[in-house]
Amino acid sequence: MPHLDIRNLSANYGRAPVLSGISLTVERGEVVSIVGPSGSGKSTLLRVLVGLTLPASGEVILDGDAVNYANKASLRQARDRMAIVFQQYNLFQNMDVLRNVTIAPVEIRRRPRSEVEATAVQILKRMGLGDKLKAYPDQLSGGQQQRVAIARALALKPEILLLDEVTSALDPELVNEVLDAIRALAAEGITLLIVSHEMNFVREVSSRMVFMDKGQVVEIGPPHDIIERPQTNRAREFFGKILRQRN
Amino acid sequence: MNYTFQFGVVFARLPELWQGALLSLEIGVLSFWGGALLGLLLAAFKVYGSGVVRWLANSFIVFFTNTPAVIQIYFLYYGLPEIGVLWSNVTCVIVGLTLNTGAYLAEIMRAGFISVHRTELEAAETLGFARWQQIRHVILPHIAKVIYPALANYFVVLMLGTSMASIFGVNELTGQAYNIASDNYRHIEMFTVVAGIYILLTFIASLSLAFFGRWAFRVRARIF
Amino acid sequence: MDRVIEQLPRFLSPLNLWFLAEAMGMTLALTFFGCGLGFLLAFIVVYMRLSPGWWGLPWRVLAILFVETFRRIPFLVITYLVLFFIAAFVKGASLVLVALTAISIYSTAYASEIIRGGFESVPRQQIEAATAMNFSRWQTLIKVIVPQSWPVILPPAVVFMVAFVKDTSLVSQIGVFELTFRGKELNNQGFSGLLVFGTVALLYFVMSYPLSRFGAWLEHRLAAPRHQKPERELR
What CATH number is associated with residue C212? Predict the structure, then answer.
């Protein structure tokens, strides 16, 4: 049974369709990357999964359980199992790093503070932020903030981690530290859904790549297959531009 | 609860309320324009004046923005007759509100003045414009657009402020309501209707000012 | 002018000075408690205003109606309305209570716009992050939004309250013993209008000026590091 099974998912923004009939399966421990031009609906897909945008039709099945986004209890469950990290402004500016990471498990999941803090410190150390526990977000660089955001998501022990263009707002020299952190996560076996522009990175780290355009899934397959031998015109155009940019 | 509402009595006296509303509008408009001119002058003094002039303008503004408008009018109304100046109650109100408005608008105008970039002025100067010509052809059109929203906003505030004229016996909207209510004892209904009229008037004013602003200055202001 | 000088010693009698001081106290108390209550109620109004979804619609409409209505009625008229309403249904209601009610209603309407502005200044992604982590609306509000809105809310709120010190002068019309009322009394007793109202103006100045400087200092000190939407609202 796939870990995440998305069937014919559609969503609208007002009257305009943003997602049209998206179908996708993700196996446990898989790293799937989602790429495509702006406006293709990649971020919207992640937002729908975590309930920030209501789907118009279609199904999302998590480990065999269908998610009903209109039902509060079902939504809570889904959010317990999937965690998302945004492009920027993730962190709560009024709390230090440790509190940012521990607040959800302690206050929302109601787990004992000492246990949560111990886990949090561990995760932050793995991210290389062991010495920044008492720092406030505005004292950290963009790359550090994003790593804290990832740590915060991990502290919730999600089954699936959704990363929405987490390096796109960073200065180039800060991107690598975040990519390293994600690389380490991928190696640990957590199911990852990554939306990104970093072609080299996703090609290296993901086992499957999804190319989206105008709200639809256009191609799915192993990254190097899609990038080097795109089957459709839209994919050809997109990757052609990317390759040209690199040269 | 032994009060029965009788709105019919109020609606019968609507024409008088309408007269009152017109007077409110008159007072508001006169005080606003008077205040705008005064404010412009004060702002000019503050930005371009020498030390003494600046200090005088500033003192005026500080004094009139830290004392209630009502007291300012009381001062004129009860104080002036003592030195032989006899103004009608309406005049006292208009003069008082003009002075008060002038002080508040001066700050708005000043913000507009200093929003003009040095370079615009310097360009005008090198083209041979004298100080006053600079003001007229370069600064004024520019600031008109910058300060319009704040001015339009203040006009609505002022319109609501004209209600204090009733304290001095002026028969503007609030004053009329009070008079008529003393007649028919329908205070609640009277003032509810008057409140409704004020809401209507401010809506119309905000809307027209917003549309005018978009048309004349291409200022995109919120209607609400 | 000679009349003023002649009356001065009688005017500045200890009794009068005491009455004036007492009246100033009433002015400040009305402002502080009235605006304070208004501010608290405004939080409720804003919470209503931000109710999400279809179920929230009636609350949103109610909140908007309240705010838009009471911001478009002169404070004097609100005061009269409150007086007549209360007088019709409650026998022997205290005038101070009436004044406080009117002040609360007025400041609730204005404060809710200030508070709403503060809440909306918190970047949307933080709120989305909280929602995605299963924070309830209340939890997001208390733990994320409110702590970060203070610097944006406090200065305009203080400025509003300080400005209100002057607006309290209007409640003299319903007979509350604040500063303007005392002034009218003294004038009725025969003291020169120039003297009385000049002094009263001075006393208001003494209350208002230092507080308004404090408000300006607050604005400066808490100058929002994050960029704010410019105030271009036409009311």
Answer: 1.10.3720.10
